[in-house]
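Researcher: I'd like a candidate sequence for this fold, 200 residues long. If you have to choose between options at a position, lean toward the conservative one.
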């Protein structure tokens, strides 16, 4: 990280010196009326699915608007701040502001996706929304958080159990288990469909 100006504006030094304080303030804002306080507010939580002009969007970052997501930003900072943070992979979504409502969000994305592409069998496994499709519902689409490492399951937690259970299901039927994350499902469902269905 570096200051953009040759003479340095001091932001990087400030960040370096105050990093733990800034992280703590981002996680638990002390002033409800501050920029961070407003991001955490129930009003903002209810009205902002990814990014808006009250949180991350400004005119100058217009090229990135469709990629911005305040919840993922907070999750990323919490990963830096807390080595025990599981980001919902333990099935717990009500302890952190950025995970509140994630299951409902995933469920509504699943609904839109299944309806758009004519997949009729939707199901829930241990609370997680999934889709079953193709002959005898042999294939399963698992909808996950973008920060979960689905390739290297390092502990026997909630999402690992679900993946194992569905892996057994698809193997027993000669089907396949596909994984799609909510970052992509929210932003480019057509791309997800191509990837999951056409290309395997
Ligand atoms: Zn917002």
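Model: Candidate sequence:
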């Amino acid at each position: 990280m570096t200051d953009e100006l040759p003479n340095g504006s001091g932001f990087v030094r400030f960040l370096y010196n105050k990093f733990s304080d800034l992280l703590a303030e981002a996680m638990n804002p002390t002033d409800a009326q501050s920029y961070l306080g407003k991001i955490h507010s129930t009003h903002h939580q209810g009205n902002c699915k990814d990014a808006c002009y009250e949180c991350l969007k400004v005119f100058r970052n217009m090229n990135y608007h469709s990629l911005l997501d305040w919840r993922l930003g907070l999750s990323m900072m919490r990963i830096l701040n807390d080595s025990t943070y599981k980001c919902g992979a333990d099935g717990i979504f009500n302890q952190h502001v950025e995970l509140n409502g994630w299951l409902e969000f995933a469920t509504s994305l699943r609904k839109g996706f299944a309806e758009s592409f004519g997949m009729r069998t939707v199901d829930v496994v241990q609370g997680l929304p999934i889709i079953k499709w193709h002959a005898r519902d042999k294939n399963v689409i698992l909808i996950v958080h973008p920060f979960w490492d689905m390739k290297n399951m390092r502990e026997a937690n909630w999402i690992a159990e679900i993946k194992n259970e569905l892996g057994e299901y698809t193997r027993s039927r000669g089907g396949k288990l596909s994984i799609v994350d909510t970052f992509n499902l929210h932003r480019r469902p057509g791309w997800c469909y191509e990837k999951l269905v056409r290309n395997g």
